[in-house]
Queue: 3 jobs
Job 1
Amino acid sequence: MSLLDDVSIVVTPNGYKSGVLYSVIPSSGAGDLEVVRGTAATRVDEAGLVNYAEIIGSEEVTNGDFASDLTGWTGYGITSATGGVATIGASANSGIFQTILTQGVTYTATVNVTSYDGVGTAQFINNNGTNIYTITETGIQTFTFIHSIADATLLLRGISNALFSVSSVSVKEVTRDNVPRIDYSGGGCPHILAEPQRTNTLTYSEDFSQSFWNQTTATVTSTTNTNPSGTSGTYSVERVTGSQLGASFSVTSGNDYTASWYVRNISGTGAIIIKDTNNSTNNFTATSEWQRFSVTANASSGTGRCYMQVPTINDEVEVWGAQFEEGSYATSYIPTSGSTVTRNQDQFSRDGISSLINSTEGVLFVEMAALANDGVFRIITLSDGGTTNRVSLIYNTSSNSIRVMVVSTSTVFDTSNSVTSTLDFHKIAIKWKLNDFAVWIDGVEVATDTSGATPVGLDRIVFDVGNGSLDFFGKVKQLQVYKTALSDTQLAALTS
């Protein structure tokens, strides 16, 4: 008899549609894993980035191509539109605006700048004066932003006598709720990736020509080479009389921060230095393949730093995808182009599936890996919607510890087991049945108990403790639920 003859739910990251990550069975859709909080950014690559699915909404801008001159727009100062081109400036303050935005919503915007005299500042801006994006050149420019105020106005304006023209403006909502993220890094089968909310505070993560970046006498040159996302565009950094590329900004003293860079060697030794937030030196060696290097430190002052150096004269490397985030480890890359970008916390759940979970007996099996040994609980649970009836697989607060709990009003089974590293994938199964409990890890039975009741009313899978707290952050290759308590032979085969 195959194990699949007994399984009621199988979740594997093999595809998604309309916000649902499809499972192998059942075909009716029950057992699919639904995402209830989503993500940010879109990247698919061949070198270990994450596939971020996102849904782009309909056009928010009226008359974005100016085919009807300024219809739909309100203009002020020196503003006009003729023949599909809007001209703004030059005066102390000129612009156009529409009332189209919603507070807290993420948007992607594209503007085609046909001319800009380089005088003053041309920018997208909120109605309270918060800059969203600064125009620095002609051409099509695309950026993503989160609207941060209640006022719904989006302005395109020139200040200090800027004179520029645009032929099109597009603004669309980016929807990321209910869409799973699938990570292809590491080769082999992909896995579900669940991460905490993080913000990339570097406003230009790929464009190192911007004034945001300090190029301390290093030779920094744009290229058309292929970057880790599979598209064209990187920057080379060559050591001449100086070697430093980076930026500094405000941070909170006492908090952890992580800086990360994608780097590959072009010529020379490949030696690079990455500075942490305290400006301390960390040495690495880049190869001819793209690699992501990261450093973490606890901020000792209110000034944070993110710098990359080439220490050897005439050595040259390529860089791309810089990130600086508050946290004790690097999370997946968050692209930015003119503003900081926040990726929302991932959380997954599926409720209303009591027919697929046998509270009286069963097995919960997960192949998973932690993102970090960071001293916090991270939990996957079969639950009744609370914490008084549940079966939980837990990354413990102690390092490299996997804990399993069964609760039926009170705790009836609770055991912790050490593994070499929770950062590696482990196959873990918990069996429950009246007076018959067992835990198997990587083909070995590690704990048993012959006394205890079983939960009642289990009707959902959640990536938390059961009530929305202690969220799971990690990677999941597969998740299975069985409606029977499997035999030792079956559990050994399942977890091997």
Job 2
Amino acid sequence: MESFRQFPLGAPFPKSPHAVISCLPTMRDVRGYEEQDSQVLAALDSGYPRFVLHAFVRELIAYYCKREGLFSRDCMLIAGRRAADDALAYLDWGFAKLEVDQGVYLVHCDGSKEEHVRSLRKFVQHTGCGISSRQAEDLLLQHSLRSESFQEAGFAGNAETKAEADLAGLIGCRTSDVLICSSGMNAFYAGFRAVQEFNRSRGRRAWLQLGWLYLDSGRVLDQFLDEGETLECLYDVSALDYILARIRALGDSLAAVVVECPSNPLLRVCDLKEISSEVRRQGGVMIIDPTVASVYNVDVLPYADLLVTSLTKYASIEGDIMIGALAVNPKSRFYGDLILRTSAYHVPPYRRDVARLCVEMDQAREIVPRLNQNAAELFRYLKNHAGVSRAFSPACPSEIETISKEGRSAGSVITIELSGDLEKFYDCVRLMKGPSFGTRFTLLCPFMYLAHYDLVTSQSGREFLHRIGICPELIRISVGEEPYEQIEAIFEEALQASIT
């Protein structure tokens, strides 16, 4: 298949200017990307949009800066006034905003102050409030900077209504309980801010994180809590008695418990039933992110007050949409407080992204079961391979049965630790290599290197990861729908290379 090959540095897949994945084919490229090597960065016209500024967005920023006379300024484009105001409030001073098109704001700072530039870009990355490549493309057309847009299938009717109805059916709620957001991180940020604001009114200031969280989710919890608010991290989600004891100990100071289920990257499944029951007894808010297995495969809303998820995975089965959603459990005692606050903080998705999502969600219903089946077979193969020291799948813990929609279906993601050489394996494997998962094609990434390079490259960071059971060299695999025998053959080739 076309996906079974070595992709050159920066190559997008699929062949769309809106692809959210571009290839880092060697570990040298991975390190170069993380260390801001100019040759590597120059090859990336696109990539995961919250980390790589899309070529369309860069072109649009340059146009606005020239039009407005903003020289020697570093700029980011933010969707919506509320998000732009949030940015200025968080960044505090030395920044300004300018509405450059309806609902599109250029937030800018002195480009010579590296700490300001870094803070602005990190804010957009963590909160997911930047404009999408499709919106940038349309604005370039509007300003006669491009002559045509990329042709792709999109739903011709009321895409927002259809997408909300489809999501409500998958999540198990009403359409009025669902809010589609510009990205999964924006869904998390909007949910966090809503819960934070609600808990201030109740005097609850203690946050509890269960297990490892995705990079930016963890950054939001770490950096957006106010003075007097606390965060405690319990990394072992299997330590149920200890988790329950800590929740009880926090009592009426408990603001919220946040968990990814399954977790990323170790794919662990905690006992949501017991944990959510205790959280509710103590009056806290339960926030659950099921992205790793997806709302196609698991049903976690009954245990959540607030569900947040990325739809870039699984729902965007082609890997070409940055989008997310949140849902408030209509049975939550906090429903009225949360549903109003989340809508105030979220950034709505761009209309073309929603239209594209509707098409791909229709495809995903048929494709996701094939991903599940291939992932289950590949896991059985990998866990017994001499080149693999440990393999992880959400299907292993018995707790997956509590939340799985169909038997033990657990999604397309597998994580492995190699017994051989990481660089030999990674450089050899003939697949797309980059972040994201839940696509119809198989891809993989050295997850900790891409998400937590600071930890894997320092002795103290590596020691910390080992203490909490995470191997810095682990590989995260997203299994596609290609013929299974061909997928296995690709991994056999790379694993043999790693141990010879």
Job 3
Amino acid sequence: MRLSTAHSYEAAIANLQRRQSEMAESQLQLSSGKRVNRASDDPTAAARAERALALEARSTASQRAVEASRNAMQLGESALGDAGELLQQAREKLVAAGNATYSDAERRSLALALRETRKQLFAIANRPDGAGGYLFAGQGSSSPPFVDTPGGVEFRGTGGQIDVASGESLPVTLDGPATWLQARTGNGVFETRALTQNGSAWIDSGRVSDPTALSGGAYTVDFSVSGGVTTYTVLRDGNPTALSDVPYESGRAIEVEGLSFTISGAPADGDGFAIAPSSATLNVFAVLDAAAAALETPLLNSGQISQVVNSSLRDVDAVLGRLQQQRALAGETLNRIDGIESRLAALKLGAQTERSNAEDLDMVEAISRFQNQQSGYDAALKSYAMVQRLSLFDHIG
């Protein structure tokens, strides 16, 4: 077979170019650390890597959302802890107000302390979240959500909470009205209060003696004093009950249709007390306002002071319990976030591993292959140099 010099040149150059291309591809892989740099390198592996990359990006976005919820819940839990400490201090002041030796001036000083506590609680309710919003803004508010009006504190916004935009239902705000304005009145089932209190009698918070007998009605206890004998009559929704003209004994429990409560002290003729079903309308700020106003009232008798202290302590305990409940929800959310973060981290690691398996380069194998390619290229280059000398003019002379 006859081989021309031109054909030898072309074959040698083609071999050099092919080996250069292979070396350039290997150098690209070594410098990038990836076996698949273009979809054409390995379409199947590129598709696997793309799916893994999308999953990794979703996991990263979810982690950012979870971190935003964690930050909000940590701040909210801390705020509720601060509020709980303030209410405990308010409770101590109310207990002190029940001291029979205190004067009106001393009770007024306690009332002033309660009003200062109320101001601090109001500031906590409007505490910002550090991201342009407010911790207790519910479903969002561009201004402080709680407004102090002459009629009391109002929530200007929409109740509820905002959840992060991810696959997990995690809040980034707390429900302001549910936290601060919607504790249950009374003992949670019914509420006792004084209607007319000219004597020294007062009523306690009461308790449920028979849940099956509850009627859900509103009751009044009316006292009558005649000839030195004190009797009471219990009405339900204005209608007589079985308790009519019953002789009164201080400190003895009165039971009616599953309810039990105690009235102590000496009632005056015409005094009355009310028992109404509990409702979720107890306001943290209104509780402290009412307690402070009552303590500022001069010349209260022992029964009126006992009533103020007992009712105020009951209401403070109710709103404190509500705050503790909301704090527990924030803590439970933080516990759930820990679990979610672990799952997201595992998911992200799995996606990274899948992507690495699909497109990453085996460096040991790649270096060995590059060295072989380099040796082949050197041999091809020497071969080309020898072919280049195959000229008739090199042999003339």
